[in-house]
Amino acid sequence: MDTHYLQRRGQIATYFDRTAADTWARLTSDAPVGRIRATVRAGRDRMRELLLGWLPQDLRGRRLLDAGCGTGALAVEAARRGASVVAVDLSPTLIGIAAQRVPAGLSRHIEYIAGDMLDASLAEFDHVVAMDSLIHYAPTEVVQVLAGLSARCRHSLLFTFPPRTRALAAMHFVGRLFPRGERAPEIAPVSERRLRHLLDTTPGLLDVGVGRTQRVASGFYTSQAMELIRP
């Protein structure tokens, strides 16, 4: 990956591990939150259910990578279905929170790792899910990451991206009004048409096809899921 990707990865890791760790822990819990964050929580819950719905109901004997697991909600649900889950995130703080939240009896089914989702030592998987973990990277970087993940994925790769919409552009403008220290790293919206073109022309992704795609919009949360599958 190029220097810009590595710099961006460092910014994201710093933000979620230090600046926003407490906020993220609260957002992904049952704790009360403000109106705006409540819409984000609701949107993320809907997106998680959508992605889980695209996975087999019975995941026994399957190995799944939760790429950018955050505080671990999706990893837990996949483990409930019998999957052997590797949950990786750049933030050691969020990994610590995720490990603490694992229900009794599921801890042996989930391995939490603080590190890079592209680490080759993670080996191969039947399914990979990257929920909102690629939204801060440029589209050309996203497809390179997807190519790296696809090389180690036997069946389906599910990911989300920020669609280019007027509503999302307005939210970005509002976000720039916050003090610099409180801003999350900017996301990189992309049209579905351009993303499909990049998927069709990126070495490492030529042997996978696009399956289902669906958008989730909830107040200040807008994200689109896409499925990559092997024939």
Question: How would you characterize the overall build of this protein?
Answer:
The chain has 231 residues and is an alpha/beta fold. The chain has one domain: Vaccinia Virus protein VP39 (Rossmann fold), CATH 3.40.50. The chain is 40% helix and 22% strand. It has eight helices and seven strands, in the order H-H-H-E-H-E-H-E-E-H-E-H-H-E-E. Strands 3-2-1-4-5-7-6 form a seven-stranded mixed β-sheet. Helix 1 packs across helix 2. It is globular and about 45 Å long.
Topology readout:
Blueprint: H1 3-19, H2 21-27, H3 35-53, E1 63-67, H4 73-80, E2 84-89, H5 92-101, E3 110-114, E4 125-130, H6 139-150, E5 153-161, H7 166-175, H8 192-201, E6 209-218, E7 221-229
Parallel strand pairs: 1-2, 1-4, 2-3, 4-5
Antiparallel strand pairs: 5-7, 6-7
The name of the CATH architecture is 3-Layer(aba) Sandwich
Provide a count of the helices: 8
Helical content stands at 40-55%
Question: What order do the helices and strands follow?
Answer: HHHEHEHEEHEHHEE
State mean pLDDT (0 to 100 scale).
92
The fraction of residues in strands falls at 15-25%
Low-confidence segments, ≥5 residues, pLDDT <50?
none
User: What global shape is seen?
Assistant: globular
Rounded to an integer in angstroms, the radius of gyration calculated over CA atoms is 17 Å
* N- and C-termini, Cα separation: 27 Å
* Name of the CATH class: Alpha Beta
Number of spatially distinct domains: 1
